Amino acid sequence: MTFISPIPTDSNGQPRKTGSMSLGKDDFLQLLVKKLQYQDPLNPMQDEDFIAQLAQFSSLEQMNNISDGISESNQWDLLQMQSLNNTMASGLIGKDIKATYDGVYVDGESDPVVNYRTTEYAQKITFVIKDADGNTVVTLRDTDIEAGTHSIEWDGKDSLGNTVPEGSYTIEATATKSDGEEFTPSLSLIGTVSAISYRNGAAYLLVDGSEISLGDVTAVGEPGAFTTED
Fold it and tell me: Of 136, 129, 133, which is closest to residue 111 (Cα–Cα)?
């Protein structure tokens, strides 16, 4: 009796290397052909067994086709969602928005602006700017800040004075009171959308010098709809 290995083989009968431990429809068909090739001629596969094997192959092919269809459908849904978001973003030009965020984008053309709010007086606020790997690039400081909405501009350079590469940078803000107690100011802003930019399929709003992701917007209104106390 000949033993049929479940391991897919090449034309020389050697084990075929695959990137996955699961069997695809081509592997399944190859096993079926090998089984027919090495079957015992005195005890060949019965018709019903052969039909059952073909039925399994057909089911496997259908499942692969369904999986491919779902993957294509998900990609199409993503493209539709991005298109819808981009269309919605263009309608925000001239509108006032409220937004919260945790980083800035350096495009090499204009200096990013960090907008923030604090509900109480701060003797000092420290802004630690980090790159995508979590490394501290530069630390900015603002002093003697009254409660309200403020901003600080970053020249896009690191602590050594070198211009940083284009990309996204996160911000960690810490405020210190007169008595030394610390609290966290809010990285947020209220302003008018002046322009829209698109990058990697996503829309970004330009508001008072800051680039805000569409997903960071918390409210939209007509000009003057929000106040700094909101």
Answer: 129
Compute φ and ψ for 38, nearest 5 degrees.
Answer: -105, 15
- Whole-prediction pTM value? 0.56
43 and 131 within one domain: no
Structure tokens at 95: 């509108």
77 lies in the same domain as 122: no
Contact 15, 8 (CB under 8 A): yes
Residue 152 CB partners (closer than 8 Å, separation 6+): 113, 114, 116, 127, 140, 142
The tens-digit pLDDT sequence of the chain (230 residues) is 444 444 455 555 555 555 445 555 566 667 666 666 666 665 655 555 655 665 665 666 666 666 666 666 666 555 555 565 666 677 888 888 888 888 888 887 778 888 898 989 999 999 999 998 999 999 999 999 999 888 899 999 999 999 999 888 999 999 999 999 999 998 888 888 888 887 777 788 888 777 888 888 888 888 887 765 55
* 85 and 100 belong to one structural domain: no
Instruction: Report the candidate in 189, 225, 196 with the shortest Cα–Cα distance to residue 91.
Output: 196
C-alpha to C-alpha distances, 40 to 30, 44, 45, 146, nearest whole angstrom: 18, 6, 8, 91
Pair (124, 81) in one structural domain? no
CA distance 203 to 90: 9
Do 130 and 85 lie in one domain? The reply is no
